[in-house]
Amino acid sequence: MLYSDPFETLMQLQQALDSFRSSSWLSTSTSGAGGFPPLNVFSKGDDIVIVAEAPGLKKDQLDIQVKGRTIQIAGVKSLSYGDNVSLHRRERTTGRFSRSLSLPVEIDADKIKAEYRDGMLAVFLPRAEHDKPRSIKIA
Amino acid sequence: MAGQELEVQQKKEVSSQQEKTIPARFYVPATDIFETGDALKIVMEMAGVPKDAVDVKIENEVLSVEGRIETTNYNGFEPLYTEYPIGHYARSFSLPWQVDQQNITAELEDGVLTLTLNKKPESKLRRIAIQ
Fold first, then answer.
1. Residues of chain B found within 8 Å of residue A84, distances taken between Cβ atoms
2. Which of A83, A92, A118, B49 is surrounded by the most beta carbons within 10 Å?
């Protein structure tokens, strides 16, 4: 395997994200935009995937709720350093968080899956069958 | 501390001083450093980095850490809306002399890397009993 191969993928991903930084999709339907955790939303086929960077959480500190087209991600991030320590540098932050997001498409609430791995939260939202685009054959 | 609203820290790109030979961008992981009686602990947030993708090396008294995210997870994904950039992580620190460079351990859990840099025996905290 070439050393540069996985980085080519990353490079493409970074460029794709750059060009979307000013996308207006969802812009009026997120609450707490700029809040924690930062969200990236992708489409995969017909489905939608929300990806968030949230290192150092415990699964039971994360609460994901869905109602209609709105997803809410909430939780608490806390840290402990132990007793008798002297802190040299502190950059990690703690606190409560809550974000909600309204999707412009209908989702199948029964098939939503959420995964938390390596500090990344991914919520898979399958598009409702009746909302999927259909191609129309020209007669 | 857990009562306050959690805010997002903007990701900082690694400065050109530590430029990489590959074209992708690297980011600086948010880091806490604290000292216990017998060790210095460095805790870095590297979301998306799996266990086998972390390199920790020491060269000329400098500790360098590099964490590479898993990009294959993004196969077939098209961005619709973005709030944060994606990239690998890199950061380095000069080590204080008190650290025993042969005795460093690393642990990665939920995207948080914890390095334990044990102190040299002569610099460990000793309690002196009063006679």
1. 36-37
2. B49
The one-letter amino acid at B103: N
Listed residue (A132, A128, A124) closest to A108, CA to CA:
A128
ipTM of the complex: 0.80
What letter represents residue B60's amino acid?
N
Measured distance between the N- and C-terminal CA atoms of chain B, rounded to whole angstroms: 42
Among B1, B12, B83, most A C-beta atoms within 10 A, so best to mutate, is B83
Could you report the per-residue pLDDT of A25-48, keeping only the tens digit for each? 665 556 655 688 999 999 998 899
Q: CA of A106 to nearest chain B CA: how many angstroms apart?
A: 16
Token pair of A52 as six digits = 């968030």
What's the pLDDT tens digit per position in B67-125? 999 888 888 898 888 888 899 999 999 988 888 888 899 999 999 999 999 998 877 77
